[in-house]
Design goal:
By secondary structure, the protein is α/β, with parallel strands linked by helices. It is built from 9 helices and 10 strands. It has a single domain, classed as Rossmann fold (3-Layer(aba) Sandwich), CATH 3.40.50.10320. The model has no long low-confidence stretch (mean pLDDT 97). Bound molecules: zinc ion (ZN). The site of zinc ion has 4 residues, from loops.
Length: 243
C-alpha cells in the first residue's frame, strides 16, 4: 500500500485562500472548502487578478467583470461569501516585494490560522509546465505568511493600522505533486462540481464536452486518485507547511 496522507489539522477557525486566478481554487480544492464551511469555519478568498486574460475571444475589460461575477458565484456554492481581488495584471504577475506586501496586508487584515494557496512549483508533477502567475502567487503566499508576523518587514502596513499577525500556523498548497495531508472530499464533492461549473463562460470556451459532465469527471477523478492514499476515501490532497 502506498504511503498514506495524514488528515489535515482541524483545530482552526479562519482561513485565507490566496490564488492567482478565478477558477484556481475550483480546480484545486473547493470540495475541502465546502466541508470546512459546513463545520462553521470562516474562509476568505483572495485573488491576485480577475482572470481578465483567460478567454481569447473576450477583451480584458469585458472579461474581468464577468469572471469576477462567476468567481463570486463559485465561492458562494461552497459557503464562501468574502472574495477580494488585488488587481495585479493577469498573465504577468510579478513575484516580488509588492506582491508579498499585498498578501501580507490581507493576512494581517483577516488574521487566518490556515493559509491556502496553489502549486508554487515549476511544474505539475514534472509533467506539465506551471504558469508564471501560479508560481509567483504561490511563492509569495508562502513568504507572506511569515512577512505578516514581522512588524519590521512592512512597517507601512502598521502605519495603515494593520497590526502584525503571527498567527498563521500552516500554509496548505493545493495541486502539489508532493502532498502530505488530505481532507475527505465526500461531503463537498457535489458542491465543488457546482462551484467549478459557475465558471461557465470560461469552461464553455475550454471544452466541447457538456460543462457539468466535464466538471464532475475532472473533480471526481482527482478525488479518486487521492483516495488511494487516504484509506479509500475520495480526498483533496495538500502539501502542508507548518510554521
Ligand atoms: Zn490559474
Amino acid at each position: 500500500m502506498t504511503e498514506q496522507l495524514k488528515p489535515m489539522p482541524e483545530d482552526w477557525r479562519r482561513a485565507l485562500a490566496v490564488v492567482a486566478h478565478p477558477d484556481d481554487l475550483e480546480y484545486g480544492c473547493a470540495a475541502a472548502v465546502a466541508g470546512w464551511t459546513d463545520g462553521g469555519r470562516d474562509i476568505t478568498y483572495l485573488l491576485a487578478t480577475r482572470g481578465e486574460a483567460g478567454i481569447d475571444t473576450l477583451e480584458p475589460e469585458e472579461c474581468a467583470p464577468l469572471r469576477e461575477r462567476e468567481q463570486r458565484a463559485s465561492a458562494a456554492a461552497v459557503g464562501v461569501s468574502r472574495v477580494e481581488f488585488l488587481d495585479h495584471r493577469d498573465g504577468v504577475i510579478e513575484y516580488g516585494v509588492p506582491l508579498r506586501r499585498d498578501i501580507a496586508a490581507a493576512i494581517r487584515r483577516h488574521r487566518p490560522e490556515l493559509v491556502i494557496t496553489l502549486n508554487h512549483r515549476d511544474t505539475w508533477g514534472s509533467v506539465a509546465w506551471n504558469t508564471p502567475d501560479h508560481r509567483a502567487v504561490g511563492r509569495a503566499t508562502l513568504d507572506a505568511a511569515a512577512d505578516a508576523g514581522n512588524r519590521w518587514i512592512f512597517p507601512e502596513l502598521t502605519e495603515e493600522g494593520l497590526e502584525p499577525w503571527d498567527g498563521v500556523r500552516w500554509v496548505a498548497v493545493a495541486g502539489s505533486s508532493t502532498p502530505t495531508h488530505a481532507v475527505d472530499a465526500t461531503a463537498g464533492l457535489e458542491r465543488s462540481v457546482q462551484s467549478l461549473l459557475a465558471h461557465r463562460t470560461y469552461i464553455e470556451v475550454l471544452t466541447d464536452e457538456d460543462p457539468e459532465t466535464y466538471c464532475r469527471t475532472f473533480l471526481t477523478a482527482n478525488a479518486e486518485v487521492a483516495a488511494e492514499r487516504f484509506g479509500g476515501r475520495p480526498a483533496i490532497p495538500f502539501e502542508l507547511f507548518g510554521r
